[in-house]
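The aim of this short unit is practical: by the end, you should be able to scan a pair of folded records and say something sensible about each. We start with the first protein, listed as its amino acid sequence and then its structure tokens.
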Amino acid sequence: MPQGETAGEPLSPPPPRRRRWRRRLLTIGLPALVALYLLLLIPDSVPTPPRLAKDPFAWNQDDRWKALEERFLASRLEAPEARRRAIGEALGDLRSQVARLGQGAVPADDPLLDRIEDDLFSLAARVGASPENLAAFLELANAVRDAVKEQSVRWDLQSPATRARLYRLLYGGRAAVEEAMLQAPPSAVPALTLCRDEPSPAPGATVLGVRLHSGDILLSRGAAPTSSLIARGNDFPGNFSHVALVHVDAATSRVSVVEAHIEKGVAVATIDEYLRDIKLRVMVLRLRSDLPALLAKPGIAEAAAAAALADARARHAPYDFAMDGKDHSKVFCSEVASAAYEREGVRLWMGMSTISSPGLCAWLAAFGVENFVTQEPSDLEYDRQLRVVAEWRDPEALLQDHVDNAVTDVLLEGAERGERLGYAWPRLPIARALKAWSCGLNVFGGVGPIPEGMSASAALRSEELRTRHEALRARLLGRVASFRAERGYTPPYWELVRLAREAASAK
């Protein structure tokens, strides 16, 4: 029997003092809690992003994509010997064009570049029907990228037409290769592509078949919806969402990776820790060995990596959601590399990234972005000061990468129609309480449920993005399965976007 009770006796009334405290709680405490809850419901103001006088890149080539798909289907029906001969001739023609590209200066508007672009896509359609030619096609596409980047040294990258040309050839070449890869069995898709073994005097160590050196830059793509948004949220949509800098200890060959995480700011990881995070792809970039600054001071890459490592260990630098590459008190992922090389007199991102679509800018502003001329991870691939050394791809996840891109592209089409990222309004006080708890943990070096520098409302919008993305992705995957069962091949990217639009309109 509970203490203070006797069988058959009524419960005694609480003493007068306890009754007074209850009345005070009801008359003062409860209204105060309600007032606090209502106060915490007041939404944050979202600044209106600036309008840039630029137009995002658009292929606008639906007829071309349809023709390529028809060529792929026709190639599947060809006799094996005829298909082998046609692909062999096409590979030979493209090799000849690449050789011509390396014989002298070629302006950005040269018709030779139009032909190379056309032949890359056309060859991809044929190789998609003949996976045994994938290795030769991949090697040739890498040669095209090297030759184009070499030519771009003489191009004016401030010209919109020139910038579009570079993007069409480099991103377009990547897209063509991966369309062919998606039609091949995963066992035929190489997990590692060795592109160019650019010499480096900096300390090095071999990781998963690649010789990494201090100062190397790692571009990667994560699996989260925000990773897809970062990769695609650009005037030139790309495939990468994260930048990190490599340091190799000269005495021990220990490989460290310096990077900025949304959750905890700038941090140092071992190479195993870096690779343990889910990554759909990783590209290795290195300063070209004939760069004038490197010739004048051969230790630039090693010095940049060592300074970045020392700075990361000496201070706490929160993640910079504003994406301000000039203020290094807070740091976003691209800034880890750009700030390190800036100290050595090398300015990366010679062509700055621009974000000008009004809907996209509104979404990013709601996440705290303030700078819309900045340093996007994907654009570093096109920097002519850097060589592409190698790329790791997860063959099993390649379709996931493309599906995520298609979902994000369609969500951003909605953003341009005025759809905004909202959140469940009654949850804002709870999120703000979690934010206060996170701030307390941050003071003592901990990591809370809401990242340092991110507002409670931005965290709720991030959750809303994930919810929308996952729901549309699930519907799209169902349509992809039906497409494969019906037609006998994996839908190319333009079909993925079409299917994603259908899935979005059918919700």
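Turning to the second protein, read its sequence before its tokens, just as you did above.
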Amino acid sequence: MNFQEAQTYLDDLQFHKIKLGLDSMRSFLARVGHPEQSLRYVHVAGTNGKGSVSVTLLTLLAGAGYRVGLYTSPHLSSVRERFRINDTYISAEKFAEIASRIREVLGIDKITYFEFTTALALLWFAESNLDLVILETGMGGRLDATNVIVPLVSVITNVTMDHEAYLGTTVAAVAAEKAGIIKASVPVVSGLAADEGLAVVERICEEKEAPLYCYGQDFSASQGVDHLWSWEPVGQRLAACGLDALRCSMRGSYQIVNASLALAVLALLQPHGFLLSSAAIRSGLARVRWPGRLEHICLDRQSRVVLASGQTTDATVICYLLDGAHNPAGVESLVRTLRQEYKYRRLIVVWGAMLDKDLDNTLPLIAEMADVLMLTRPAGERAATPEQLLAHLDPTAQPRCECVVDVERALRRAEELAQDGDLIVVAGSLYLIGAARRILVGELVE
């Protein structure tokens, strides 16, 4: 297969329903000689923040000279975004080559889309002479296709309600699924709040004799002046030195928590030979980029050229903020960040979401802040129509709404309404973020 044929084959697997379980992955990996057993891992689960923690670890380790693989999901625009080694995404040719091998091995057998991409990642990483692989779970953890490995460190960023149809209807049930990545004697880094979710993780760690290191208990962060912050181990359990004068390149106070989790992981990786200087950590944190997550994009209205931070122009500037907030906790973080860290004259929100998401506890949160709410529909059978979204809003909010089905037309309409000092926020679904980002700045991968 060439890349287009491989992509079509993979897309056809979307017709197979989500199937949680490890039998298919274990069977396939056995048939190709267990490539996963030749690698060292950090395994990352959680409701929100998985990608930020993962890309922070990648950036810090790669900047210090290590060769690190990263597997994340979902992608914004191209499936190749899911597979990286340091700063390089998998090539179209390599993707097609490995996809062809997988199809040949499978024969008439079928696996899910996520199982296929996970298998592809493991095969690519196994042949690439890596120091470490960072694997992000797709959904949950216990039955997630990535849960076929034994890592050096496990991470559970947080636990809030999401994917209830698959993971459970209580925080404790969701936590039990995510805690399924915990392995015997493997240390766990956690950013969980002190609630029933943490109690579940603590119990499972105790059962498996897995040391647990919690944000706020075993390490913490404190903010100083000029957006600088410091990281400190608490007590003697985490053998690491404190770090000060740190600066996160990504906006949002919660990114300091995510970065703190990454620093705790680095401390636990030291006995395995991963050594980073404080200077390497400081410079690495300042370089972290995670497209589509509180990503600020400014365009010259006339030329459509993307303006660098601080760059001035004689023409009118259109300012966008792209954020893949799609569940209640994510939207709450977006709203809090808008209130605390952004100044604007009016807020124009372009929103699209999947119909199976918790629209009653997400859309009204952002609608309350919006001066104009542009409801649109990203591609996909699960995507809600603008009219379906409108039905989840209080009648008092509806006069501020416009329904524009096509994403590109919705962005154009938002720009027509935007004046100097206005901010256009695009949020609600990563599918929408991917479509909008492609329209505004082009593809993330060549």
